[in-house]
Design brief:
Blueprint (H helix, E strand, L loop, with lengths): L10 H13 L1 H32 L14 H34 L3
């Protein structure tokens, strides 16, 4: 909505803006849809990427509170983790794009 309207300035305007936005019917249905998509992306795409990166980099030491001087050793394993887990995220993204394209396609 900020593309078309001037954003709220003070706290009372922000509270009114948020209250009226939550009352919109399209906001409630859109929020449910976006939360489901975000949870799916997190479970299917982001979680495997983090798990693979941690599994492949588990043997390297990690300095606490200092400069990571072994960062160059982790690049190959990060690239391998990204290559192995990236198809999951692409599949979810393509499915979401196809779903939204089918909903907006004229009948």
């Amino acid at each position: 909505m900020f593309k078309h309207y001037e954003p709220p300035v003070g706290l009372p305007q922000w509270l009114t803006f948020i209250r009226e936005t939550f009352k919109l019917e399209s906001f409630r249905s859109g929020l449910k849809s976006r939360l489901q998509l975000g949870a799916t992306v997190g479970v299917v795409s982001i979680a495997p990427q983090i798990a693979l990166m941690r599994q492949l980099n588990s043997g390297w030491s990690n300095n606490f509170g200092g400069f990571e001087y072994n960062y160059y050793r982790k690049f190959p394993t990060i690239v391998v983790a990204a290559l192995l887990s990236s198809p999951f995220g692409i599949a979810v993204d393509m499915a979401a794009r196809a779903y939204y394209a089918d909903r907006t396609f004229p009948k």
